[in-house]
Design a protein that fits this description.
The chain is α+β, with helices and mostly antiparallel strands. The protein has 41 helices and 41 strands.
């Protein structure tokens, strides 16, 4: 690193001036930090201002601690720099004062004394004091205003002696870890002589993101992968098989890594390559000789050095491919990379792309960023382990304060043994990024544990002799791709060895360097079977199907249609059953993104049928990932897993996936969700594609009912890979739809709404469509076509307000009857038959001239109506409108079979939109809301109001529908999306600036405009839409409609979204109870009663709705989790660490300051003095706050 500008004389003067300081933090810390800023050549802190929003870099920054009881208290950050760090200063002393103990207990010092923290340096007391300072800094960071975010660094300073750094680059406050690692996070005063240390601190002050190791190593990793890809391509072009090329290159790259970290002599392998220029033909035998020696250890004649024993696995096969001069040159280029800097978290992904000919074109695509992976790994594995460690540490400090140093050390050693015995499983490990990130966090935690052991008197030499450490055998993986499985194993060993040399210097690891743990299994993670056999017909001939990919040009239309001669065999899986997973403590991973609709195409009919046969408890409509979720949830409820966490598509909240979650939350024993992000941007590790995902973490409900809901509040272009996000956190009971608050997922379908909302027609082929001009020509030619050729709309047409196509609908006609319309029948032969002839569904292939689904329920529901209500299933805005009933609405449209404008008005209101957003799903990269009618409509309790209010709603709904249609007719390019984009922006402007006219009339050159954000004015295009759509009138109609519908419910018009949901959930429950008693408030009684003459038992008891799907019983989470009743006392645990955990949990649950006496009363047989001792220890190490004498808060 370049030397900081400070002169050696300035550094020496600074060290000399501060080495003698001690025991006067309040008097010294501001001066020390100011002079440190001068030494680092960064600005000194600024004067404090009255408004904290302006205090971005100040001493004594005030923060407010909010307690659950409504009380608040104020703390002050010693030094704060926004987006950079929170700094807490302490000052130790070099020797005890007269009659002063090594650790001064806070309760033995005057309250708010001017000299806090005078522990003697080099003692356990000093370590505890620094730990407390770190805990205080973390509490201050947590108390910062949400809009300022978590800083990437915590800095703990012992004035004139040491500076400790803790980092958390995801800035979510998950876990601040020693930076750069537990062996070098502490910077002593004398270390400031090193320019690289001063540069590190300068970056903490000014550019902390540049210290993020993931960013630093990502560039080097990409360069390495690019060079390997060139080499792999060159070797394949020379005629070598991709599998042999991959294995050969993995041996080469590990050898390059070995020389860069010192496992073999430095530059020995690249030196060998350089020496072979012009003699490339000698490379293969020399490389094979080297790798044979590396496998078994011993003297290498190639390198003329004695080598360590690396073991088999990677070097089991020592074959080296013959190379030419071009390949040798590429190897030399690859060897010149610094392999110490590769990032294992992404290297596996890039290496897999580089070595796979089919994936190589994705090499330059984005990869899954490390911070995304950590966002799941931390709550799944790291946070519960850190909670355990904090409890053990507090217990150990308590024993040490009692004089039992041996007992303290014993507790920590026991935790270390348990840490080294943990098993973490990724049952879809790919190339190992989740396992590696988990492994690194385990090593960081282990470093802290070993530091604590040293503080309790255990020497590093004794710890080394014990030979117990966190290593790759604890990371278990299942991966069906052999190449990826092998890469995972290598990535974990590279990461382990990197960590070894980073923390142990030049100390060589024990032999064998690579051990055969066989911890990565290459097999299917969800389906086991005895074999696969071809399916044969009655004549014993193999049954085949179209391969799903190969096409040919149609001789008439010229379109690409399936090539029926490209066949693959249909197979049957023998004895299919659920695959078993190895024993583990935690499961975390990212299973394949495959929806139920695409599973057959990707996996094959035989596999899907075997999978569903083996997993009866998973609905056929569920995504592939839910089979992993089902397995992990079952193991967790059985007590075989502590936690599991998965990446899934964000459709996990939709009913077809949610049923899997619901059955476990309602099971006995139940599961609870500890953490969830319902919607998050993601980068697919295979091809770098942008997708939307959800994260969920499950645990036994006995661990608690409340979880953490994290929502993405803003997205921006990221600095590196992926999209940068801003996050908000809420705590509460997490429901099956990944929400907290009103439990909309627990609501019930209502008979009152049954058989009305139906998905549009599923054609199964675009070949049925005819352009509007062609259709009109055909209709003019033969009027009888009007019964077959019908106007057609899809979701896009609905938004545009016009239809451009017709559809050929032979519903109810046999093939002979269809031939009576030869012009239309030939169209279907040419455009539909080629793809239908290879359709896997027998009914669809046989009845090829008909829609894939007949739509009988929809045809019946709209019969006799002149108009219907329709909404696009997936759209940015939830808009309902009338359509003529003869319109064929495609399946991306939800049809509401009602011509009642009152129903249209209720659906168009804010109340229903809020409900639909909460009960629906989200789809696609654009993350648009989806209207799942079984939840959004069937569960919605319509208002029951008087006739006058209904007429008012009807009139407003008719005006609203007419207004939009009229304006779109006048302006053909005007879309509903455009109109509602402007309407939404006007409301945002109105909220921010107090009136819409500001947005329309502002003078862009005025001083007022200079102070406005550009997004708070309408653009020229938006002003045009505003005029064409008369959006101000549209807004007024909606406002009046919202008020009228709120009045119909008897509710205020200004309720918050959360209040609306709470009331709707309560009303749904009330209506469900009424229906159980026989009172059904039908929407179309004359039609709905025909569908079911009697009111059957309610769906809550397992009976299906007429024409709908059954629901299962779902208990409240309070009943499921066995939550402690009011006044019921908690059991007092037996072991000291468990007692610490219990006290911390009880302290957090109180929500405000509490005394030891009050807290002890929440437990059975807990002594007040014991609780007081534990609270004092928690405060001493920064895990609690003593807000006033002997009164604590969490």
């Amino acid at each position: 690193m370049p030397e900081a500008p400070a002169t050696s004389a300035a550094v020496a003067d600074f060290l000399r001036r501060w080495e003698a300081s001690g025991a006067a933090e309040r008097a010294n810390y501001q001066l020390f930090l100011s002079e440190l800023c001068d030494l680092l050549e960064v600005p000194r802190p600024e004067p404090t201002q009255p408004d904290d929003r302006n205090n971005a870099y100040v001493f004594e920054r005030a923060v407010t601690f909010r307690h659950g009881t409504g009380l608040t208290s104020t703390g002050r950050i010693d030094l704060y720099k926004r987006d950079c760090f929170v700094l807490e200063a302490k000052q130790g002393s070099d020797r005890p004062g007269e009659n002063q103990p090594l650790l001064v207990r806070e309760e033995e010092t005057p309250w708010l004394s001017g000299r806090r923290g005078t522990a003697v340096r080099g003692t356990r007391g000093w370590d505890v004091a620094m730990l407390k300072a770190k805990g205080q800094a973390e509490q201050y960071a947590r108390a910062l205003p949400v809009e300022e975010g978590w800083p990437p660094f915590l800095v703990v300073v012992d004035v004139g002696h040491a500076i400790e750094l803790y980092s958390e680059f995801s800035r979510t406050g998950k876990a601040y870890l020693p930076f750069p690692d537990p062996s070098s996070y502490r910077i002593l005063l004398a270390d400031l002589e090193a320019p690289e240390i001063r540069e590190r601190l300068r970056l903490v002050w000014n550019e902390p993101h540049r210290l993020d190791p993931a960013r630093q190593s990502a560039r080097a990793t990409r360069e390495v992968a690019d060079r390997l890809a060139l080499l792999a391509k060159s070797l394949e072009q020379a005629g070598h098989q991709p599998e042999k090329v991959g294995n050969f290159l993995k041996r080469c790259l590990f050898t390059m890594f070995a020389e860069d970290v010192g496992l073999i002599p430095n530059a020995s392998f690249t030196g060998l390559l350089e020496s072979l220029k012009g003699e490339a033909d000698k490379f293969a035998p020399m490389a094979e000789s080297l790798w044979i020696t590396m496998k078994d250890g011993g003297f290498s004649p190639v390198l003329r050095e004695k080598l360590l024993r690396f073991n088999g696995g990677l070097f089991e096969e020592a074959e080296a491919l013959p190379i030419g001069e071009e390949q040798l040159s590429l190897l030399i280029r690859a060897g010149k990379a610094d392999w110490r800097d590769v990032e294992p978290a992404i290297f596996g992904t890039l290496l897999e792309r580089a070595l796979d000919p089919e994936e190589r074109h994705h090499l330059g695509a984005h990869y899954t960023p490390r911070e995304y992976v950590e966002r799941l790994v931390l709550p799944t594995v790291v946070e519960p382990l850190r909670s355990d460690w904090e409890a053990v540490l507090a217990a150990a400090v308590t024993l040490d304060r009692q004089g039992d140093q041996a007992g303290a050390a014993s507790l920590v050693k026991e935790f270390h043994r348990a840490l080294c015995a943990l098993r973490i499983l990724d049952p879809a490990c790919g190339s190992g990024n989740f396992l590696y990130v988990t492994f690194e966090h385990l090593k960081r935690l282990e470093g802290e544990v070993l530091n604590a052991l040293a503080g309790f008197g255990e020497s590093q030499a004794l710890l080394d002799l014990a030979g117990t450490t966190v290593d790759p055998h604890q990371l278990l993986g299942i991966e069906v791709n052999p190449r990826a499985a092998a890469i995972t194993d290598m990535v974990l060993w590279i990461g382990y060895l990197q960590w070894h040399f980073r923390t142990r210097g030049h100390v060589l690891p024990p032999e064998p360097v690579i051990r055969k743990f066989r911890n990565i299994e290459c097999r299917d993670a969800v389906l086991a079977y005895d074999g696969v056999e071809p399916v044969v017909d009655q004549q014993g001939e193999p049954v085949t199907r179209w391969d799903g990919r190969t096409t040919r040009a149609h001789p008439v239309t010229g379109e690409q249609v399936p090539d029926e001669t490209a066949r693959v065999p249909v197979v049957r899986y023998l004895n299919p059953r659920q695959a078993q997973w190895p024993e583990a403590d935690f499961v975390v991973g990212n299973p394949p993104f495959l929806g139920a609709a695409t599973m057959r195409r990707s996996l094959g009919d035989g596999y899907v049928e075997a999978l569903r046969a083996g997993w009866k408890e998973v609905p056929d409509s569920a995504d592939f990932v839910m089979y992993w979720w089902q397995q992990a949830a079952g193991l967790t409820r059985q007590g075989k897993l502590r936690r599991f966490g998965f990446i899934t598509t964000n459709s996990i909240r939709q009913s077809f996936n949610r049923r899997v979650i619901e059955q476990h939350l309602a099971g006995a024993p139940p599961l609870s969700l500890a953490f969830a992000i319902p919607d998050h941007p993601w980068v697919d590790s295979t091809d770098g594609a942008a997708v939307r995902i959800a994260m969920t973490v499950g645990r036994p409900a006995t661990e608690g009912s409340e979880g953490k809901l994290v929502t993405v509040t803003a997205e921006r272009e990221g600095d590196g890979e992926g999209i940068g996000v801003e996050l908000a956190v809420r705590h509460g009971v997490l429901h099956a739809d990944l929400t907290v608050g009103a439990n909309v997922a627990g609501t019930k379908q209502l008979y009152a709404n049954s058989c009305i909302a139906i998905k549009g027609f599923e054609l199964g082929s675009q070949g049925f469509l005819v352009t509007k001009p062609e259709a009109l020509e055909l209709l003019n030619e033969d009027a009888s076509f009007s019964s077959i050729l019908r106007p057609y709309m899809n979701g896009s047409d609905l938004v545009k307000g016009r239809y451009e196509r017709y559809v050929v609908d032979f519903y109810g006609k046999s093939i002979d009857e269809a031939r009576k319309y030869p012009r239309l029948f030939q169209h279907v032969i040419d455009h539909v038959l080629p793809e239908r002839s290879v359709n896997r569904e027998e009914r669809t292939a046989t009845n090829w001239w008909l829609f894939r689904r007949s739509g009988e329920a929809l045809r019946s529901a709209v019969h006799g109506l002149e108009r219907i209500i329709a909404t696009t299933r997936t759209a940015k805005f939830r808009i309902f409108q009338f359509l003529p009933s003869e319109m064929v609405a495609e399946s991306k449209i939800v049809v509401i079979a009602s011509d009642n404008a009152y129903v249209l008005g209720a659906l168009s209101s804010r109340i229903h939109v809020v409900w639909s957003l909460a009960t629906g799903g989200w789809l696609g990269v654009g993350n648009d809301p989806t209207y799942n009618h079984t939840d959004c409509f069937n569960k919605f309790p319509f208002p029951d109001c008087d006739g006058t209010t209904k007429e008012r709603i009807r009139a407003l709904a008719e005006q609203l529908d007419l207004h939009r249609k009229r304006q779109q007719a006048l302006h053909p390019d005007l879309t509903l999306t455009g109109m509602y984009n402007v309407l939404e922006k006007l409301r945002e402007i109105d909220a921010c600036r107090g009136g819409i006219h500001d947005a329309l009339d502002v003078d862009a050159t005025s001083q007022g405009a200079m102070n406005r954000a550009p997004t708070l004015t309408l653009t020229a295009k938006e002003k045009t839409i505003h005029e064409q759509g008369l959006v101000a009138v549209l807004r007024q109609l909606h406002d009046e409609l919202d008020a009228a519908v709120a009045e119909a419910y008897g509710w205020p018009a200004d309720l918050s979204d959360e209040e609306i949901l709470e009331r709707l959930v309560a009303l749904n429950r009330k209506r469900a109870r009424e229906e159980e008693q026989g009172l059904v408030r039908w929407l179309r009684p004359e039609y709905q009663r025909q569908q079911g003459e009697e009111v059957p038992p309610h769906p809550a008891f397992g009976h299906p709705l007429p024409g709908g799907e059954g629901l299962q019983i779902s208990l409240s989470l309070g009943e499921r989790a066995g939550v402690r009743g009011k006044g019921e006392k908690l059991p007092w645990p037996k072991t000291l660490p468990e007692q610490v955990q219990a006290v911390r949990a009880a302290l957090a649950a109180t929500g405000g300051p509490v005394t030891a006496e009050a807290l002890a009363r929440t437990f059975q047989r807990a002594r007040t003095d014991k609780v007081a001792e534990l609270l004092a220890t928690l405060a001493a190490i920064g895990q609690a706050r003593e807000v006033e004498p002997r009164t604590y808060s969490g």
